[in-house]
Amino acid sequence: MSFTKINASAATLSKNRTEDSISHISGMCATCVDGCIGMCEIGKSAYRGAEMIYPQPFGIITTASEKDYPVDYSHLTILGTAIGAHGIEEDSDKAIFPNVNLERPIGREREITASLPFVIAAMGSTKVASINWDGLATGAALSGVPMAIGENVVGMDMQAEIRKGRVLKSPEL
């Protein structure tokens, strides 16, 4: 069984020339020919370069994996138990959900305490991130959870001022 996908994706606006004849080992057209206009991911990356790393149209969409992995969380069954209590008295009036403390310290030198043990992931330096930032940041602040900023936010900020490798100003940040 092969988990290779064709070298085409709506996320990168690419497609195979021979959609019904694909090599399941590589995902390439079974008859990859010299002179093809190269609309597959391999061909497009050859002439569009690093642009093919990002889903298209870049900056206004978010995307998810199209891969079928051999094992994922849907293959697991986690059987918990509702017997006993840990960290609280075994009393059904006291061992209730609102009394659960999920706070966790984060950081090495200067710890901060997160109310919940998760972080809202960074969305990168895109229009999707800037449009949704206020709502996500507000929700994170109200919930007491950290939110990461995306990579290259300053680099994509047209009004950023950088001198000698230091960020002096970045309105987007």
General description of the model:
This protein is of the alpha+beta class and 173 residues long. The chain has two domains: 1-66, no CATH class; 89-169, no CATH class. It contains three helices and four strands. It has helices spanning 41-48, 127-143, 153-156, and strands at residues 104-106, 112-114, 161-163, 166-169. It has a two-stranded antiparallel ribbon. A hairpin with a 2-residue loop joins strand 3 and strand 4 (166-169). The longest helix has 17 residues, at 127-143. The chain is flat and about 75 Å long. The two termini are 46 Å apart.
Strand line-up in the sheet with most strands: 1-2
Shape: flat
Helix count equals 3
Structural class: alpha+beta
Count of distinct strands: 4
| Rg result | 24 Å
Average pLDDT score: 81
Question: Which spans have pLDDT < 50 for at least 5 consecutive residues?
Answer: none
Strand content: 5-15%
Number of domains: 2
The helicity comes to 10-25%
Encode the helix/strand succession as letters: HEEHHEE
Instruction: Give the N-terminus to C-terminus distance in angstroms.
Output: 46 Å
Largest sheet: 2 strands, antiparallel
